Amino acid sequence: QVQLVESGGGLVQAGGSLRLTCAASGMIFVINDMGWYRQAPGKQREMVALIHSGGSTNYANSVKGRFTISRDNAKNAVYLQMNSLKPEDTAVYYCARVRGSKVDWGQGTQVTVSS
């Protein structure tokens, strides 16, 4: 079955950077759209960034210019480079495989940005 395993979260000061990694297995990675979502306490889960099978990307307005999503099809991995982090970026970040309205989720990794 599909497995998505995130890593790279942690505690960072405002203005700092983190790189999240998602290792995918159990699917033909290259043909799938992949994404990063996040959920802060008391808030709904929201899309952060998407990367389509062809390589095109979409970002939430709140992270444009600061976050970069990328993928390595040879390694079945998707990455989220997060720069200029803000306290409001604090959340659990989830890797996702997106197939229309169907989404497969990883277990999440905590990102905490201190002010």
Could you explain the architecture of this structure?
- By secondary structure, this protein is mainly β.
- It has strands at residues 3-7, 10-13, 18-25, 33-39, 46-51, 57-59, 67-72, 77-82, 91-99, 102-105, 109-114.
- The strands form two sheets. Strands 2, 4, 5, 6, 9, 10 and 11 form a seven-stranded mixed β-sheet that branches. A four-stranded antiparallel β-sheet has the order 1-3-8-7, with no helix packed on it.
- The model has no long low-confidence stretch (mean pLDDT 97).
Order of helices and strands: EEEEEEEEEEE
Shape: globular
Rg, alpha carbons = 13 Å
Instruction: Give the integer mean of the pLDDT values.
Output: 97
- Count of DSSP-assigned helices: 0
Low-confidence runs of at least 5 consecutive residues: none
Percent of residues in helices? under 10%
Question: How many extended strands?
Answer: 11
Keywords:
115 residues, mainly beta
Secondary structure: elements and pairs:
Elements: E1 3-7, E2 10-13, E3 18-25, E4 33-39, E5 46-51, E6 57-59, E7 67-72, E8 77-82, E9 91-99, E10 102-105, E11 109-114
Parallel strand pairs: 2-11
Antiparallel strand pairs: 1-3, 3-8, 4-5, 4-9, 5-6, 7-8, 9-10, 9-11
Characterize this entry briefly.
By secondary structure, this protein is mostly beta strands. It is 0% helix and 56% strand. The chain has no helices and eleven strands.
